[in-house]
Amino acid sequence: MDQLSQAQSELREMDALAGMDSPVHRLHPLCKLLVTVGYIVTVVSFSKYDFSGLVVMVLYPVLLFQTAGIPVRLCFYKLRIVLPLVCAVGLANPFLDRIPLLRLGGLTITGGMVSMVTLMLKGCFSLMASFLLIATTSIDSLCAALRKLHVPEMLVTLLLLTYRYIGVMLEQVAVMTQAYKLRAPGQKGIHISAWGSFLGQLLLRSMDRAEELYNSMRLQGFRGDFFYADVPACTGADVGYVLACAAAFVCARAVNLPALLGSLVVR
Amino acid sequence: MHMADALLAPAVAATMYAASAVTVGTCVKSLKKEENMEKLPTMAVASALVFAGQMINYTIPGTGSSGHLCGGMMLSALLGPQAGFLSMVVILTIQCLFFADGGLMALGANCWNMAFYGCFVGYYLLWRPIMRSSLFAKLGSKAAGRVKIMLASVLGCVLTLQLGAFSVVLETAASGITELPFGVFVGIMQPIHLAIGLVEGLITSAVLLFVYEARPELLMDMNAQNASGGRFSLKATIVILAVVTALVGGALSLGASGNPDGLEWSLFGNAESGYSENMGLDEEHYGIASGAADAAAAIQEKTAFLPDYAFADSDSAVGTSVSGLIGSGIVAGVAVLVCMAGGFFRKKKVAAKA
Questions:
Q1: Residue-wise over B305-327: b if at least 16 C-beta within 10 A, else e?
Q2: Is the ipTM of this complex over 0.90?
Q3: Are B111 and B20 in contact (CB under 8 A)?
Q4: Min CA distance, A241 vs chain B (Å)?
Q5: A4 at interface of B, judged by CB pairs closer than 8 A
Q6: What is the pLDDT along chain B (354 residues), one digit of tens a residue?
Q7: Mapping DSSP to helix (H, G, I), strand (E, B) and coil, where does residue B176 land?
Q8: Nearest residue, CB atoms, B57 vs list A43, A189, A263
Q9: Which CATH number is associated with domain B5-353?
Q10: Nearest-CA residue of chain B relative to A217?
């Protein structure tokens, strides 16, 4: 499957996931957005040597994956391209930071090793949290939440419209690429002679279509205001979820829970 | 050039969010003033097109590799810098949310690195001055237009990518994430993006040239030359280009002078993913505050209980202790249990439904 059809199927897949029903899906989108941002900020704020403190943060995505009923493998499948890059970021650390931190028998663990693993975990956790947000919240609800945060209407409307058109555009570009490939077998990409005309033609057609689209929107009563998904007001459960998560994140950040747990066992 | 969350400290991410948010606010305000709501569908279609267009592989003649389109420059040439910036922000948001390209927390930084320079710096410093200039007038108006589009796209893409790449280095450096020295990092980022910028510029100019041939009125500032009477002379354009060159050259030489050993990079580097392989700053040399780390280390020292596994002399060593490792194991165990419980309850639910 090429990149274009891959992108199309991924968008469809995410829409399908967001359309499921679970306690997590039913939470208020704004609350989910705030908790996700809070989680990522907490994860990233851990010191680069604080491996054990960071580990406890795995519980949030794990709990959410289980409650929402979203398969973890889907997340890792989706992140298969990005995760190696995130993991590769810290690969140089063990070579550059050789300060020994801990000796376990004959094995010396250096600062670089710890910071590498910590950086990888931070990358994975942040990606998992973003994935969970979008897998449990539809784009319409997310846009409604953004409006509640007073993000300018123009930007939110643009986000929603672009998201809708991306599906159409991907399909068109996929069809064009397929047609081109069939006429140019064995060629890796678009030949330099067609660099301009390939996308240029689609661009011209699309610009005309955008004009028609605007006219039809005007005829249907569009005056610059857009109506988003009807999101009910925050319930007590939503507020409770945000407060509980905030308390848990602060607690995890302030106290090294795994070290405490471990000390109970070791002592 | 999409940055991941793990590469940024929260303070840096927040600063970049603030900078991008202010730019978004200014753009929205200026577009509203022009009552440009009819631009909205065009903006959406153009951003969707650029999004899809960036997935097309263009074969680079003479090499085995392929290049992609530069979104920022193309959108600002079609829609203007403000609308172009908003469109780029939307593209980056969708890439971040649905394709995990760049982190949610790093979105502000990514918008700045990839949208701000492409749309504002590229447009105001290169596209508009070049388009409005009377450069190449001897060639005839049509041919002059072609050459100017080519020049503006290539220079614009090179400049914006250089600035974007340099910002990535600065932001990672300010976050103090990894151990790679600043100079090495700059020395590898800038040349890679110089090559990418050249290719992207050529591809972008090819598409814009096609639009110019077919529908020149779609491009910004295309007919401005007559209106402004060639406000920017050749001299002014050359001065601007000289300033740009000095800026880019300065950034490059800064990297080169602080880069005694680029070899280390080549051991671990990757030309395709470039920056994301190795980045960062030496904490000691760039003064990242470690008060909290010291305090934590002091507490840890007091609570250390196994003398055989003592910490070595390290002022920033925190967190990793035997109890920490064992505790982490317990947390992992709990996580597995949660997964098993989730599976159990789901099966029960399915059975009950059946």
A1: eeeeeebeebebbbbbbbbbbbb
A2: no
A3: yes
A4: 18
A5: yes
A6: 788 888 888 899 999 999 999 999 999 988 887 666 777 888 888 899 888 888 887 877 776 677 777 788 999 999 999 999 999 999 999 989 888 888 899 999 999 999 999 899 999 999 999 988 888 888 888 888 899 999 999 999 999 999 999 999 899 888 887 677 888 888 888 888 888 889 889 989 999 999 999 888 888 887 654 444 444 444 554 555 556 555 555 554 444 333 333 222 332 333 333 333 333 333 333 333 445 445 544 444 444 333 333 344 333 344 446 666 777 777 778 777 877 787 777 777 778 776
A7: coil
A8: A189
A9: 1.10.1760.20
A10: B41
